[in-house]
Write a structure and sequence with these properties.
Elements lengths: L7 H17 L2 H8 L7 H9 L18 H13 L6 H14 L2 H12 L5 E4 L15 E5 L2 E12 L6 E7 L9 E7 L5 E5 L9 E12 L3 E2 L6 H34 L3 E2 L2 E2 L4 H14 L2 H14 L2 H30 L10 H13 L4 H10 L4
């Protein structure tokens, strides 16, 4: 018999994460961080590092907690519930790449810094086309004396403005096929690398365009074997989908709680609006919409490291597609329950509303992932 519930330790982890973030990451902190240059509340991340969150899935021998992807998803759910700013998920993607394909020297150089929240990383893949299409990666990496020279442009790179290192997907062999794609660790301070911040409606996270012009990196910057990075890249993108879906699950529940809480205090015609049948229907529909998605997210997190690659990819795509729709729909309904004031700057709900729509698009929208489900056995 399979138990699909959480263990006592996982329940304790999620409960502790919720309590910690309620105290340390209130909406006031999110608002303050929105005005900062790189959008990283470093004091908060130092405390998170002290709890071991930055190294949740890092093996104990490497200095981490050695927990599972499901444990990571539970923490990401609580981060989404608090609309916590900063590059937590992007840094986890770089950590995952180093754990799977990094050299001992690369792990020794970066893992301690990531785990201590002294440095942050992100994955730079998209060039404006479909992230899951190898033909969309045309940034070039040419061999040079003692290393590589990278040229190209990446767009919509999540948390690029605050990242200290970027994991860049580039072609070491011309063409449009899966073969010839490699991954490189490129430090932010490298000559020829420029990051231009994007103007975004989501105030809780930063994204940017990364321009690489004659960027020279040493041969030790190559992660894994030359030209064989596509399967690893797909894994990282699936982990990103699980992470965004987890964030969306937590945000959805918080939006429901805020809407229901408001309906219990707001009065019209001498009655609390929560007593109106129409409001009850909306609240019930929101809960009925969100609750079934919990199992999708938890299974996708479990499948990521316990099921065959294609099954794990299907689970990640289903979770991302479902939560992309559900979070946006739930946040919209929550705003409607508040009335027009729900979208004003004075009310915090707009932070969740905007994050919901940013999550819907991040790492592929629901349409893309439903198309993936139709063809996933073929790639």
């Amino acid at each position: 018999m399979i138990d699909f519930g959480l263990t006592e330790d996982q329940e304790a982890l999620q409960r502790a994460a919720r309590e910690f973030l309620a105290a340390e990451c209130p909406p006031a902190l999110v608002r303050d961080t929105a005005g900062d240059g790189d959008g990283i509340p470093r004091a908060l991340y130092k405390k998170m590092a002290g709890l071991g969150w930055m190294g949740l899935v890092v093996p104990e021998r490497e200095g981490g907690l050695g927990l599972s992807t499901l444990d990571l998803a539970l923490v990401l759910e609580e981060l989404g519930r608090a609309v916590a700013p900063g590059p937590f998920l992007p840094t986890q993607l770089v950590i995952a790449a180093l754990l799977r394909a990094g050299t001992p020297a690369q792990r020794a150089a970066w893992l301690p810094r990531f785990l201590a929240a002294d440095a942050f990383g992100t994955l730079a893949v998209s060039e404006g086309g479909l992230a899951y299409d190898p033909a969309g990666i045309q940034t070039r990496a040419k061999k040079a004396k003692g290393g590589w020279v990278l040229d190209g442009t990446k767009v919509f790179v999540q948390d690029a403005p605050g990242s200290d290192v970027l994991l860049v997907a580039a072609r070491t062999k011309a063409g449009s096929k899966e073969t010839g794609i490699s991954l490189f660790l490129v430090e932010r301070a490298t000559k020829g690398l420029k990051v231009r911040s994007h103007e975004s409606f989501d105030l809780t996270r930063r994204s940017g365009e990364v321009v690489l012009k004659n960027v020279v990196v040493p041969k030790t910057a190559l992660v894994g074997k030359e030209g064989t990075a596509w399967p690893l890249l797909l894994q990282l993108l699936d982990l990103a989908c699980v992470g965004i879906a987890s964030d969306s699950l937590g945000g959805s529940w918080k939006a429901i709680e805020m809407a229901v809480g408001y309906s219990k205090v707001r009065e019209q015609f001498g009655r609390k609006i929560g007593s109106f049948q129409a409001m009850k229907h909306i609240a019930a529909e929101m809960v009925a919409d969100v609750e079934p998605t919990r199992s999708l997210v938890w299974f996708a997190a479990y499948a990521f490291e316990n099921r065959p690659p294609r099954e794990a990819a299907r689970a990640a795509a289903m979770a991302k597609a479902a939560l992309g729709d559900v979070y946006s729909r739930t946040a919209r309904r929550a705003v409607e329950m508040h009335g027009g004031i729900g979208f004003t700057w004075e009310f915090d709900l707009h932070l969740w509303f905007k994050r919901a729509h940013a999550n819907e698009l991040a790492y592929g929208d629901p349409v893309l992932h439903r198309e993936r489900l139709a063809t996933i056995d073929g790639y």
